[in-house]
UniProtKB/TrEMBL annotation:
Single Gene Ontology MF annotation: DNA-binding transcription factor activity
Full protein name: Cyclic nucleotide-binding domain-containing protein
Keyword field: DNA-binding, Transcription, Transcription regulation
Superkingdom of this protein's organism: Bacteria
Species of origin: Winogradskyella ouciana
Domain Cyclic nucleotide-binding: 12-91
One Pfam entry name: cNMP_binding
Domain named HTH crp-type: residues: 147-222
Xref: PROSITE patterns: CNMP_BINDING_3, HTH_CRP_2
Gene Ontology CC, one term: cytosol
């Protein structure tokens, strides 16, 4: 199943990072971030786009009451801040590292536009990815609108299993070691932490899963 909540299977870093192009190789740097560091805030100037060399980045915004809404969690090879390419002047979201060893390649919008003008294939890949990302987000919105919370949670766990699961040699069960807090998961599936806890414990009581803060064990199929 292709991921609805994450975009890990498209490694744009391999083809879009300017250090792959001789003309730009010596005039850009990589920035390092630790967990909870912000890459940019809402209302910051949108003058760069960013490629993830390694680590994880959370994209979201804050509601008027101060609560956080997560739009996506991105990993290695992902592009974010891409609306600057399309003319965005101010950020309407924040980007925050959720890994202690996140490495980001920032690319100025002018540099990106020059790369796109110079290389038609490169330009096509950029626009194809942006369209792909919007399509994924639209599909996520449809899930949030038309599926109940428990179904969204089950699909999310199956997504996590595809991305982070491995077989336990002793029991044959799937073990999912993931980097997300309960707050992250609740926000991604569009529910509250208390509701998430109730549903997780319901799945546990029916012997579908066992879990702790950083690990979910699949005891039997929950699809």
């Amino acid at each position: 199943m292709q991921s609805i909540w994450f975009f890990d299977d498209v490694n744009l870093f391999k083809v879009l990072c300017p250090h792959k192009f001789k003309k730009y190789k010596d005039c850009h740097d990589f920035n390092s971030y630790r967990k909870s560091d912000y890459i940019y805030f809402e209302e910051d100037n949108a003058n760069k786009i960013y490629l993830i060399e390694k680590g994880k980045v959370k994209i979201g915004y804050y509601k008027e009451d101060g609560s956080e809404v997560i739009k996506a969690i991105l990993g290695k090879g992902e592009l974010f801040g891409e609306k600057a390419i399309l003319g965005e002047q101010k950020r309407d979201e924040f980007a925050q590292s959720i890994d202690n060893k996140t490495s980001i390649c920032p690319v100025g919008v002018n540099t990106m536009h020059q790369l796109m003008r110079d290389n038609q294939t490169f330009s096509f890949k950029v626009y194809k990815f942006i369209g792909f990302k919007f399509k994924k987000l639209e599909r996520r919105l449809q899930l949030l609108m038309f599926k109940d919370t428990k179904t969204r949670l089950v699909e999310f766990i199956n997504e996590l299993c595809a991305d982070y699961g491995y077989d336990c040699e002793k029991t044959g069960n799937k073990i999912i070691k993931h980097p997300y807090t309960q707050k992250d998961i609740a926000s991604l599936i569009g529910t509250s932490r208390p509701t998430l806890n109730i549903l997780m414990n319901e799945l546990k009581n029916h012997n579908h899963i066992d879990f702790n803060r950083k690990e979910i064990k699949l005891l039997k199929n929950i699809a």
